[in-house]
C-alpha cells in the first residue's frame, strides 16, 4: 500500500474513533509511556501537543512539567521545526497547522535530549513511521547532535502490518500502541 492510500485509510479509521474512545486510549497510552523505563530514566523528554487524531499528551505534560524538562516542537519556516521548553499550558499558542506550540527561546542542546516521543499517522513493528507528508520529524531526527531514544506512540488502529518508506524516512526505536 502506498503512503497516500495508507493515510487515506487511517483518516477514515480516525473519523470513526469517538472522542470518548480517544480519551480512554490516550489515558492508556500515556500511562504506558509513563511506566516505560526510557521515560522513567529520562531527564529531558521531547513530546508533542497532539492534533485531534493523535493521543492527547496535555495531561501528561501537566503531570510532569515540574519533574522533567519537557520540550515541544515548533514549526519554523516552510519545512523545519525547532524545539522549545514547555512552561505550562498557558505558554502555548496556536501555530502552524493549528498545533499548540510553545513560546519562548529555542532549545538547542539536542545532545541532552534523552527521549523523543514521536507522533505519526501509522507505525509498524519495525518502527517505520508514516507522518503527514511534510517531513518535519524526518529532517529533525537526523540532527547530528541527537542520540535520544525515539518512541512512536499511536492508537491501536494506527499500528499496521507495514508502513511504506522512502530512503529519507527515519524509523523509531519502538512503538507504544
Comma- or semicolon-separated keywords:
177 residues, alpha/beta, Rossmann fold, seven-stranded mixed beta sheet, two-stranded antiparallel ribbon, 5 helices, globular
How is the topology of this model organized?
Elements: H1 3-16, H2 19-35, H3 37-41, E1 44-46, H4 58-64, E2 69-76, E3 80-85, E4 92-94, E5 100-102, E6 106-107, E7 115-118, E8 122-123, E9 129-130, H5 136-141, E10 149-153, E11 174-176
Parallel strand pairs: 1-2, 1-7, 7-10, 10-11
Antiparallel strand pairs: 2-3, 3-6, 4-5, 8-9
Structure report:
- This protein has 177 residues and is α/β, with parallel strands linked by helices.
- The chain has one domain: Rossmann fold (3-Layer(aba) Sandwich).
- Helix content is 28%, strand content 23%.
- The chain contains five helices and eleven strands; from the N terminus they run H-H-H-E-H-E-E-E-E-E-E-E-E-H-E-E.
- It has a seven-stranded mixed beta sheet. Strands 4-5 form a two-stranded antiparallel sheet. Strands 8-9 form a two-stranded antiparallel ribbon.
- Strand 1 (44-46), helix 4 (58-64) and strand 2 (69-76) form a beta-alpha-beta unit.
- The chain is globular.
- It starts with a helix and ends with a strand.
Amino acid at each position: 500500500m502506498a503512503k497516500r492510500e495508507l493515510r487515506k485509510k487511517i483518516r477514515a479509521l480516525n473519523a470513526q474513533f469517538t472522542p470518548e474512545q480517544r480519551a480512554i486510549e490516550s489515558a492508556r497510552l500515556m500511562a504506558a509511556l509513563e511506566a516505560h523505563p526510557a521515560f522513567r530514566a529520562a531527564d529531558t523528554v521531547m513530546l508533542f501537543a497532539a492534533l485531534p487524531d493523535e493521543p492527547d499528551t496535555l495531561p501528561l505534560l501537566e503531570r510532569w512539567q515540574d519533574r522533567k524538562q519537557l520540550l515541544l516542537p515548533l514549526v519554523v519556516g516552510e519545512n523545519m521545526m525547532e524545539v522549545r521548553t514547555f512552561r505550562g499550558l498557558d505558554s502555548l499558542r496556536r501555530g502552524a497547522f493549528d498545533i499548540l506550540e510553545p513560546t519562548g527561546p529555542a532549545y538547542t542542546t539536542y545532545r541532552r535530549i534523552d527521549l523523543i516521543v514521536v507522533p505519526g499517522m501509522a507505525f509498524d513493528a519495525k518502527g517505520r513511521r508514516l507522518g503527514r507528508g511534510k517531513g518535519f520529524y524526518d529532517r529533525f531526527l537526523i540532527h547530528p547532535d541527537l542520540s535520544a531514544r525515539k518512541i512512536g506512540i499511536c492508537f491501536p488502529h494506527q499500528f499496521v502490518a507495514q508502513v511504506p518508506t522512502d530512503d529519507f524516512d527515519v524509523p523509531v526505536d519502538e512503538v507504544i500502541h
